[in-house]
Specification:
The radius of gyration is 21 Å and the shape is globular. The longest helix has about 35 residues. A hairpin with a 2-residue loop joins strand 1 and strand 2. It has one domain: Up-down Bundle (Rhopdopsin 7-helix transmembrane proteins). The chain has a two-stranded antiparallel sheet. The chain is mainly alpha-helical and about 300 residues long. It contains 12 helices and 2 strands, in the order H-H-H-H-H-H-H-E-E-H-H-H-H-H.
Length: about 300
C-alpha cells in the first residue's frame, strides 16, 4: 500500500485515491469477515462427508480471513499515518501476500482437481486423504515461500514528514524483477492453468448431462471471470511500472508520467482486488450447494463425484 505525503496527519486533505481505497477496504472488512465465517459454518453444517472440494473451500475462506483481518490497520495508514513498528509492517504485508498467493493457488488447484476428478477419477483417488492433506499443507508452505519477498521489500521509512510502510527497492532493476515475479506467479501461470483445465474439461464432457447443468456452467464461468476482473488491474499496473523502469533511461519524461500514473492507481487497484476475498466464498460454497441440489433433484448425475466435486 502506497501512501502520499499530503495526508491528514500533516493537516492537508486526504488524497481522493486514498479515500476511495479506504472506503473499499472498509466494505471488504465489514462484509468479508462475517461472510467468510458464515460460509464456513454453512459448509460445515451442510456437508457431512469428508471431501477435498470442501477442504479447498474451507482453505479459501480461512485464507481470505487472514487477508481481511489486516484491513483496519491499512485503512488507518491510508487516512492518517503508519504509527506502528517496522516488524508489524512486514508482518501485515506477509499476511496479505500469504493469503493472496494461497487464494490464487487454491482456485487453481480447484480447477486441476476438478479436471482429474471428472476425467481421471481413479488416478485421483490413488492420492487418498493423506495425499490431499499434503497438497493443502503444500499450498500454505509455497505461499509462505512466495510471500517472503514482501518481508524483504516492505520497510518502514520516512516519506517527507510521514512514516511509510511500503515496498522500497535498491534499484529500478530490482523493482522490475519483483513486479515481473509477482505478475507471472500471481496471475499469468495460475490463470493459464485454470483456463486450460476448464477448457479441456468442457471439450471432453460437454455432451454429457454433467455439463448440461446450467448452474454448474454458470459457476465455472463465474470462477474464471471473477478471478480475471479483480486481478488483471493489479497486474496491468505492475506491467506499466515495469515499462516505466525500462523507459527510465531512454525516455525519462514518458517514464516519469508512467510512474506518476502507477503511484496514483496503485492503492485503488489493490483495494479492489480485496473484493475477491469477499465474493470467493459465495462462489465456491453457496453456488456449489445449489449445483448439488439441482443435480440431485433432476437426477442428472450422482452428486457423490468426489462427494460433490465441482
Amino acid at each position: 500500500m502506497q501512501q502520499h505525503n499530503n495526508s491528514n496527519s500533516s493537516g492537508a486533505a486526504i488524497p481522493i485515491q486514498n479515500q476511495v481505497s479506504s472506503g473499499v477496504l472498509g466494505l471488504c472488512f465489514l462484509l468479508g469477515i462475517p461472510g467468510n465465517i458464515m460460509v464456513m459454518v454453512v459448509m460445515l453444517h451442510n456437508f457431512k462427508r469428508n471431501n477435498f472440494t470442501l477442504h479447498l473451500m474451507l482453505n479459501l475462506a480461512a485464507s481470505d480471513i487472514l487477508c481481511l483481518i489486516t484491513l483496519p490497520l491499512w485503512i488507518h495508514y491510508l487516512l492518517a499515518d503508519w504509527t506502528f513498528s517496522q516488524d508489524l509492517c512486514k508482518l501485515l504485508a506477509s499476511f496479505v501476500y500469504i493469503s493472496l498467493y494461497n487464494s490464487v493457488m487454491t482456485v487453481t488447484l480447484m480447477s486441476v482437481q476438478r479436471y482429474f476428478a471428472v476425467l481421471y477419477s481413479h488416478q485421483w483417488a490413488k492420492l487418498g486423504r493423506n495425499g490431499e492433506r499434503a497438497l493443502l499443507v503444500s499450498l500454505w508452505i509455497l505461499a509462505c515461500i512466495l510471500s517472503s519477498l514482501a518481508a524483504v521489500t516492505y520497510k518502514l521509512k520516512k516519506r517527507g514528514v510521514l512514516d511509510a510502510c511500503d515496498t522500497f527497492f535498491n534499484s529500478h532493476g530490482q523493482r522490475a524483477a519483483v513486479e515481473i515475479f509477482e505478475t507471472l506467479l500471481g496471475f499469468v501461470v495460475p490463470f493459464a492453468i485454470l483456463v486450460t483445465s476448464y477448457s479441456c474439461l468442457h471439450k471432453q464432457v460437454n455432451s454429457t448431462a454433467f455439463f448440461r447443468n446450467k448452474r454448474l456452467t454458470r459457476l465455472v464461468t463465474n470462477i474464471i471471470v471473477t478471478f480475471f476482473i479483480f486481478w488483471i488491474p493489479v497486474h496491468v499496473v505492475n506491467i506499466i511500472d515495469v515499462v516505466a523502469v525500462v523507459l527510465s533511461s531512454s525516455y525519462p519524461a514518458s517514464s516519469k508520467q508512467l510512474f506518476a500514473f502507477t503511484a496514483f492507481a496503485d492503492n485503488m487497484v489493490k483495494s479492489f482486488s480485496f473484493i475477491n476475498s469477499c465474493v470467493n466464498p459465495f462462489l465456491y460454497a453457496f453456488a456449489t450447494q445449489g449445483v448439488c441440489q439441482s443435480t440431485e433433484d433432476s437426477n442428472e448425475r450422482d452428486c457423490d463425484l468426489q462427494s460433490c466435486d465441482v
